[in-house]
Amino acid sequence: QVQLVESGGGLVQAGGSLRLSCAASGRTFSNYGMGWFRQAPGKEREFVAAISWSGQRTYYADSVKGRFTISRDNAKNTVYLQMNSLKPEDTAVYYCAARASVVATTRSYDYNYWGQGTQVTVSS
Fold first, then answer.
1. Would you state the pLDDT for residue 31?
2. How far apart (Å, rounded) are the C-alpha atoms in residues 84 and 68?
3. What pLDDT is stored for residue 34 in this prediction?
4. pLDDT, tens digit (0-9, with 9 covering 90-100), for 57-71
5. Which residue from 53, 51, 41, 42 is spatially nearest to 106, judged by alpha carbons?
6. How many Å apart are CA 18 and CA 99, to the nearest integer?
7. Which distant-in-sequence residues (6+ apart) come within 8 Å of 39 by Cβ?
8. How far is residue 9's CA from residue 107's CA, in Å, rounded to a whole number?
9. From 77, 82, 101, 121, which residue has the greatest number of CB atoms within 10 Å?
10. Smallest Cα–Cα separation from 98: which of 90, 84, 108, 89?
11. pLDDT over threshold 80, residue 27
12. Residues contacting residue 62 through CB under 8 Å, at least 6 positions apart
């Protein structure tokens, strides 16, 4: 079992930045591929970014490529999402997810564990 706790969400103006953190506990963190997903009101959950166990492979949704950066610190059991140049359309609840595989994917159904989510609101 893996427990995930997100933090770092909040209200920011368009063009601003936020850094989300996801702290993991339980099984060996370095054995898990990690992902970030988001869900806006009235919309389905969508992929944002993912990172392999070593951090060497990263994946991004086209909508965030060049603005968001995913990283991980296996010594701290934490994965991060640095979000720059935020837009109002980035407003959503952001979820951290862990996959019981060293490989990360972009598909939500591949992930076994989920955090409770953290709200990100970008004002125009």
1. 86
2. 6
3. 96
4. 999 999 999 999 999
5. 51
6. 24
7. 45, 46, 92, 93, 95, 117
8. 23
9. 77
10. 108
11. no
12. none
